[in-house]
Design goal:
The structure is a single chain. The chain has seven helices and 21 strands. By secondary structure, it is of the alpha+beta class. The strands form four sheets. It has a seven-stranded mixed beta sheet with strand order 11-21-16-12-15-14-13. A hairpin with a 5-residue loop joins strand 19 and strand 20.
Amino acid sequence: MALTLTTADSALKEDYQPAIREQLNNEIMMLAQIESNSTDVEGRRAVLSLHVSRNSGVGPRAEGGTLPTAGSQGYAEERVSLKYNYGRIQINGPVIRAMKSDTGSFTRAIESETKGVVRDLKREVNYQLFNNVEGTIATCASESSKVYTLATATDSSQMRRLEVGMKVDIGTLANPDLRVAGGTIQSTTGVTITLDVDPLTGSVDGSDFVTLAGSKTAAGSTFGLTGLRAIVSATGTLFNIAPGTYPVWASTANGNSGTNRAATDNLFETVIDEIFMQSGEAPNFIVTSPGARRNYAAQLKAQKRFSDTLDLKGGFKALTVDAGNTSLPIAIDRDNPDNTAFLLNTDALTQHQSSDWEFMDEDGAVLNRVSGVDAYEATLFKYHELTTDRRNTHGIITDLLES
C-alpha cells in the first residue's frame, strides 16, 4: 500500500508561521486628523468665551439728528465637560507563562493585549467622532427568536459598527437597556442582528434603539464624545449655547428633502460659499462615506477630469474638491454616515483633554493582581471631548447619491 498524506498524518509536523495575521479593519482616519489639534484641560471643565453679536449702535443719521442708541458686543460662554473612555484587559497567570516566548506562542500575551486594547479603544473613539446627540447606533423595528430587525433606513456604516462579539443594549431613549442589557451579537445579516438573549420585557419596535452596552445613562444621555452629527448642525443646543438665542451658533446644512442627488463640484462649491458668507472662513477638509466619494469621482470621470490627491495626517490620502481659489481634500471614513458629507474647518475643531492614551498606574504598576484569582488586569483611559469654538465654519450635506 502506498504511503499517502492520510496514512502519514501522524508523522507529519505542523509548520506554524510567525506572527498573527490581522483580519480586522483598524483604520481610524478621522481620529488622526482631530488629534493633531488638542488642548490640555485642568479642573472641572473648559470654558471658552465666544463673540456672538455686534454693537447695534451704528448707522447713518441726518445732520444734527439723534445719534444711534449705544450698543455693545455680545458674548456667550461655551462650557465643555470632558467625557471618559476606557479599555480593560485581564490575563490569567498561566497564559502569561505559556506565552512568554516565541517558542510557545505567536505573540507575547501582555504585549498583544496592551497594544490591542489601545488600538480597539481608538477604534471605538473614531466611531464616537461621528456620534449623534443621543449616541445611538441604530433604530429597531421588531424582534423574533433573538433576531432583531433594524429599521429599513439603517445604512452600511451602522451595520459595520455592529460587529460580531460586540455587547449592546436595546431600549428607549429614556431607558436604554429596557429590552436588552448587555446582549452579545452572534451574527449580522442585511439589517438584522442576532443576539444571545431574548428581550427582557415587552416587544421591540421603532421606539427602541441599539447602543453600545453601558454607553448611556438611565436618563438617556450618552457618555460618549459629542460627535460631528451633533456639532455640525443648524439646530440644537451645543455646549450650553442655543442657535435660537445666538443665530451665529449654527452650521450650514444642505439637504434635499430625502431625495439623493449627485455629489457634484457645484454642490460642494455652493455649501462652501454659504459657510464663507456666514463665518468669513472657508472649510479646509471634507469627510464623507466611501459610496459618496465614489459618486463624486464618477462626476470627475464623466467630465474627463482627474483630481489630484493630498496627503493627510496619519498616512491617509484624499481626492481634492476644487472650489474657487481653494482645493479641499475629500477623504472617506468607514464610520461616516452614508449619503452624507461633512465640510469641516479643522482649525475650529479641538480635542480638549486632561489625559492622553494612558494606563492607570497611580500606584506605580500598570498590571495589577486580581484579588483572589491567578490573573492580572490593566485599564487604559482617556479623558477628553471633541469641541468647536466656531460652529458656523462647518457644514453638512445630506441626501448624496452612493455609487
